[in-house]
Write a structure and sequence with these properties.
Layout (H helix, E strand, L loop, with lengths): L3 H9 L4 H15 L5 H17 L9 E6 L1 H7 L6 H13 L4 E4 L11 H10 L3 H8 L4 H10 L3 E8 L13 E4 L11 E3 L3 H6 L2 E4 L12 E3 L1 E4 L2 E4 L1 H10 L4 E5 L13 E6 L2 E4 L5 E3 L10 E3 H5 L5 H8 L3 E6 L7 E2 L7 E2 L1 H13 L9 H50 L6 H33 L5 H9 L7 E14 L2 H6 L3 H21 L3 E6 L2 E6 L8 H22 L14 E16 L4 E6 L1 H16 L3 E3 L1 H5 L5 E9 L7 E8 L1 H4 L2 H18 L3 H10 L1 H6 L3 H16 L9 E3 L4
Parallel strand pairs: 1-14, 1-15, 2-3, 2-15, 3-6, 4-10, 21-23, 24-26
Antiparallel strand pairs: 3-5, 7-13, 8-9, 10-11, 11-12, 16-17, 18-20, 18-21, 19-20, 21-22, 23-25, 24-25
Length: about 750
């Protein structure tokens, strides 16, 4: 038999934790050369967090957006609008003194309302005279073309990978310092504006903007390529026209004196007095502002004379104006690090704002090298020091290293405008720490295995494991948080158990409780305990559940539906006793509770206490009185605005001074929108108003009118109870200050 000393000695022959940590560090370093989408997304998410924490300050730069929003579509008609309306919009902006009017809209097809088209239809119908009259009307496309020719307008076009249509040539030349960029996106075709519109335009630019793999737009392309032709974006062309600048200068890495990039990487784009650093693909990293209402003017305000000429001049004089579609149905909405959904035209506007403000946000070509150096140096230091420091101090050292990397990254972003990704150095530290710690643990575990086995003879292995893993589990106490509590009970269980054998009762409870728990667990509930046939469950602990209210409501409704199915199927099963039609009552309540490990020093239980719990139990008991399957408290009802809930009564339960308004949970959002429920809910509210104003005759009349609806929605028993109370009140009227509250202790 192997001796204790032999086992300890064999453990010492295991590979060095430091060596294993260095191997893990090398693997991470080699992985950095591979383009791993998951890691890239983590880095991009980090940069998004920086932007949300420190968005670009907005100092009202000379950039405005005219938004074709939902309200504009509602007021002016569905999109696309007639071209004469676009012409009017253009003319008003030009008259207001706009320096540039850039359309993030592609007018690629003739106006569908043009007289020529209408005349063709009339001729096809045989009405030549009407066709002649209509054909003489002004052509909206020509009207727009004339307006564009008289205004500083830039038109947008889409770039695509299918087809062979040539994009409009740039209005000015694009000078190249260095070799032709090789990493710029190259397109084979385009969707262009109508030629008659393009002829008079002051410039054209592509509007194609593609987000990252997660769909978020973080960069704005400034330059694209079709064949050997370089093309400017709409925003870049707008910035050029606003300055009346000449050629656009594109500088690549082999002409910049920089190192680390490919020969065909774009380094910067210069237009007029502005030089914009870019990525190798010719994209500008965007530093977004927080949402700014002053940047955007709805299109309807310009077209419907909502703004006076003076207001138009104050809003647009000397401004670079982008016109785009922000209406939801027009599908030009994008996600940014700041907003989940914003009009795509805002990307063009923010690019110009950033250039005008001189805000530089870039990822330099030396950034990957710096990140790799940090990974190796910090990982090497941790791998050497960790066995000497131990797991505790080693963890502090690793955390300090991670915080240092993120601090450096944040400083570079906030002060220098550099995007330094802390992800790879953090992964190197994590891999090193994890590998060294695990290797040390297993080496020490082998040396302790024999001794640990000896202790297992005297203590429960499970108890030992729990105590060693987390001694804090043995501490009494809890935390206060808002929670939703459910009590569920079988109706008439005493009668059911009286008629069944003990073994059959157990089988019945298993058949009942199992699907009920499946429903609760599927809706993120924590099952607290079983009290005979009753179930106690809660939401929002131990893990946070921001949807606790809707989860609880849906779970209760699904429990009722599941029970209906069990009542249909279980009686036909010979192996499971089922006592006829089983009914349950469910009480739900929301409020503050104390949740945690509770009990005695000898026995602990993770549970919750508080007035919210007691009230939930009382509410469940009142389902018997009112004859409804689900009753909820007022706090939960307020958190379920879309659900079908009906006020039932105001009560004062036993042991509680405060009153509570009870609501019956009838169904989900679909039921709440049905005409029958809406009508019944309104009638029920009127009934309760009459009852609480002691209008007994009016109340009785309303109850009679609602009899069939009350039966359908399960409130017939509640109405019968109200009739019984009114009979008593007629003989002994309540006090003049009676507020309609019923004491649950009353017989």
């Amino acid at each position: 038999m192997e001796s204790i000393w032999e086992r300890i000695r064999s453990a010492r022959l295991s590979p060095s934790p430091t060596l294993l940590g260095l191997l893990a560090l090398c693997l991470v370093s080699l992985s950095q050369f591979i383009d791993l989408p998951v890691i890239n997304r983590i880095g991009l998410a980090t940069f998004d967090t920086y932007q949300r924490a420190a968005p670009r300050p907005y100092d009202d730069p000379p950039v405005r957006i005219v938004d074709i929003d939902d309200e504009s579509v509602r007021r002016l008609g569905q999109w696309p609008w007639p071209r004469d309306e676009i012409a009017e919009l253009t003319e008003r902006l030009a008259s207001a003194g706009a320096a540039v009017i850039a359309y993030d809209v592609v007018f690629s097809e003739p106006d569908r309302t043009s007289p020529a088209r209408l005349a063709e239809r009339l001729r096809a119908d045989g009405d030549d005279q009407a066709a002649l009259v209509v054909g003489r009307l002004p052509d909206p496309d020509q009207t727009l073309a004339d307006t564009i020719g008289a205004a500083p307008v830039i038109l947008g076009y889409f770039l695509t990978y299918e087809g062979g249509t040539q994009a409009p040539p740039p209005s000015v030349g694009i000078a190249l310092a260095g070799s032709l960029p090789s990493r710029v996106p190259t397109f084979s075709s385009s969707i262009n504006p109508l030629p008659e519109l393009t002829v008079g335009a002051a410039g054209t630019g592509f509007v194609s903007t593609v987000g990252d793999a997660d769909g978020i737009v973080r960069r704005a392309p400034l330059i694209a390529r079709q064949g050997d032709q370089l093309l400017p974006s709409l925003s870049l062309e707008a910035l050029r026209l606003a300055q009346q600048a000449g050629a656009i200068m594109v500088r690549t890495s082999d002409a910049s004196g920089q190192r680390g990039g490919d020969g065909g990487d774009i380094v910067a784009v210069r237009v007029g007095q502005f030089e914009i650093p870019t990525s190798g693909q010719g994209e500008m990293w965007l530093h977004f502002t927080a949402p700014q209402s002053g940047r955007t003017v709805p299109a309807w305000r310009v077209l419907q004379d909502d703004m006076s000429p003076e207001e138009l001049q104050r809003a647009f004089a000397g401004q670079i104006v982008f016109v785009g579609a922000g209406a939801i149905g027009l599908r030009d909405l994008v996600a940014t690090p700041i907003e989940e959904r914003t009009p795509g035209v805002g990307v063009h506007a923010q690019m110009v704002e950033q250039a005008v403000q001189g805000v530089v946000l870039m990822r330099p070509d030396w950034a990957p090298g710096l990140e790799r150096a940090l990974l190796l140096l910090m990982g090497l230091a941790l791998a050497v020091a960790l066995p000497r420091l131990g797991s505790g101090w080693g963890a502090l050292a690793a955390v300090a290293g991670v915080l240092g990397v993120y601090g450096l990254s944040w400083w570079a972003f906030r002060v220098q405008g550099f995007l330094i990704d802390p992800t790879w150095p953090t992964l190197g530290l994590a891999a090193t720490y994890g590998t060294v710690t695990v290797a040390t643990f297993f080496r020490e575990e082998r040396r302790r295995a024999f001794i640990h086995g000896a202790f297992d003879r005297y203590l429960s292995p499970e108890m030992v494991r729990r105590i060693v893993a987390d001694p804090g589990r043995l501490e009494l106490g809890g935390e206060e948080r808002e929670m939703t509590v459910l009590f569920c009970d079988i109706r008439g269980f005493s009668r059911i158990s009286e008629d069944m054998e003990p073994q059959d009762i157990i089988q019945f409870l298993i058949a009942f409780l199992t699907p009920m728990c499946d429903v609760l667990l599927a809706r993120n509930a924590t099952i607290d305990k079983f009290i005979g046939d009753a179930i106690v469950a809660f939401w929002n602990a131990p893990l946070d559940d921001p949807d606790q209210h809707t989860h609880a409501a849906r779970a209760a409704l699904e429990m009722i539906a599941t029970l209906d199915q069990l009542n249909r199927t279980q009686p036909d099963l010979a192996d499971t006793p089922w006592p006829g039609e089983v009914k349950i009552g469910i009480g739900l309540n929301t409020g503050l509770c104390c949740v945690g490990n509770m009990g005695a020093a000898q026995r602990l239980s993770y549970s919750l206490i508080g007035d919210t719990v007691n009230l939930a139990s009382r509410i469940e008991g009142l389902t018997k009185v009112y004859g409804v399957p689900i009753l909820i408290g007022s706090a939960l009802n307020a958190a379920l605005p879309g659900f079908a809930t009906v006020e039932v009564d105001r009560v004062r339960v036993v042991g509680r001074k405060a009153t509570e308004t009870l609501y019956a949970l009838i169904g989900d959002e679909t039921v709440a929108q049905t005409p029958d429920f809406i009508a019944f809910n309104a009638a029920q509210s009127a009934l309760l108003d009459a009852y609480r104003s002691q209008n007994w005759r009016g109340t009785a009349r309303r109850i009679k009118t609602l009899r069939s609806s009350a039966t359908r929605f399960g409130l017939d028993t509640a109405h019968d109870l109200m009739i019984s109370r009114m009979t008593t009140y007629r003989k002994a009227p309540p006090a003049p200050d009676w507020d309609g509250v019923h004491s649950a202790s009353e017989k």
